[in-house]
Design brief:
single chain, alpha+beta, 7 strands, about 25% helix, globular
């Protein structure tokens, strides 16, 4: 009888252990995030210092920095260079913070009050082969309240990488 109870306990523990080790799939293949401001530098060209985006690859577990210095809406594919493992460690998990309310919104501007010449956060994801993107004003008050926590996360992660 004692052996039967011990066997049942061990079997239960092994089943519980196997279930808890199951990996959750990432919310997205990657997330591109960054900040930029609208505006032009000398001679009507975009000022390259105004744009900074990063690509957090959830499949390869790597962080890249875009070296093109152009606004995300002007290029389909950035030119990325690998950042350090320490940089990746600082921003990993950002994809897990994407709220369902953002995913439910159409691509584009999610601001309540759009400002023509504004500092803006950019977020892009690819999930199941589908690319999605959004722009959020740097002022949290100008985005829907359902995005405030994510807005703070994006801002903090960008600041960590500067």
């Amino acid at each position: 009888m004692r052996l039967l109870k011990l066997t049942a306990i061990l079997l239960s523990l092994s089943l519980f252990s196997a279930c808890s080790k199951e990996d959750a799939s990432p919310k997205s293949d990657y997330i591109v995030f960054g900040a930029f401001s609208y505006g032009f530098g000398d001679f009507g060209k975009f000022d390259e210092h105004r744009f900074k985006t990063y690509k957090l690859d959830n499949v390869q577990h790597q962080l890249y920095e875009d070296t093109t210095r152009t606004p995300p809406f002007l290029h389909e594919q950035g030119k990325y260079v690998l950042r350090s493992q320490a940089s990746y460690d600082q921003v990993q998990g950002l994809s897990d913070k994407i709220p369902a309310s953002l995913l439910a919104m159409p691509d584009g501007d999610v601001n309540i009050n759009a400002v023509a010449d504004a500092y803006t956060y950019y977020v892009e994801i690819q999930q199941d082969g589908q690319k999605r993107y959004w722009y959020m004003d740097s002022y949290k008050e100008n985005v829907p309240s359902s995005l405030h926590a994510f807005h703070i996360e994006v801002k903090e992660r960008i600041n960590l990488l500067r």
